[in-house]
Design brief:
The protein is mainly alpha-helical. The protein is built from 4 helices and 4 strands, in the order H-H-E-E-E-E-H-H. The protein has a single domain, classed as Cytochrome P450 (Cytochrome p450), CATH 1.10.630.10. Strands 1-4 form a two-stranded antiparallel sheet. Strands 2-3 form a two-stranded antiparallel sheet. The longest helix has 18 residues. It binds protoporphyrin IX containing FE. It is found in: Membrane.
């Protein structure tokens, strides 16, 4: 809220042009995608020939998954990976996005088939979160903690 008040103020709604200045908000979104990557196993690839990945023989026809959730919580890479700490992605955040070789952070996949919707997705997430924060007063009901249990699903129908 502090950043929003400082960069945008209370007299108008946040706009697309404000987002580059909302660096902490961007870090919050990045850290959320680190801890809870929606595509936690990416999109599988099928080896079209025998190959070797990190010393493992992978026969032709094998399905290969990138375990994004495991990468994002790797103790060798991240300090206290189970803690929500947006600051860790504040400085280095931009270089973690796409088109680079930072394979330890891959919420949008990596390589030639990485997510083409990354810019749109980020824009929508940043604008939605900042508008929600600006327009609402969010509190936790009673003493209860927010339920952060993961539920992965993909659906295109309206749930009853
Ligand atoms: C938070 C939002 C999103 C996340 C976390 C996400 C994540 C991903 C991931 C992990 C992949 C697989 C990349 C790979 O295999 O290396 C992917 C692929 C893809 N995404 Fe997204 N995505 C998001 C939003 C979007 C949006 C908004 C669009 C379109 C407007 C989109 C369109 C696609 C398409 C078309 C592919 C397939 C690309 C290909 O196989 O060449 N995504 N996404």
């Amino acid at each position: 809220m502090e950043e929003l008040n400082q960069e945008v103020g209370r007299e108008r709604w946040v706009r697309e042009g404000d987002i580059p200045n909302l660096v902490y908000l961007q870090a919050v979104v990045k850290e959320t995608l680190r801890m809870y990557p929606p595509g936690h196993l990416g999109v599988p690839r099928e080896a079209n020939e025998d190959c070797c990945i990190a010393g493992y023989h992978v026969p032709k026809g094998t399905w290969v998954f990138l375990n994004v959730l495991r990468l994002h919580r790797d103790l060798g890479t991240w300090n206290s990976p189970l803690e929500f700490m947006p600051k860790r992605l504040l400085v280095s955040g931009a270089e973690y996005l796409i088109g680079n070789k930072k394979f330890e952070y891959a919420p949008f996949g990596k390589g030639r088939r990485d997510c083409p919707g990354v810019l749109m997705a980020n824009q929508v997430m940043h604008l939605t979160l900042s508008t929600l924060l600006q327009g609402s007063h969010l509190t936790v009901s009673g003493d209860s903690l927010v339920d952060m249990t993961k539920h992965y699903t993909v659906t295109t129908r309206v749930l009853a």
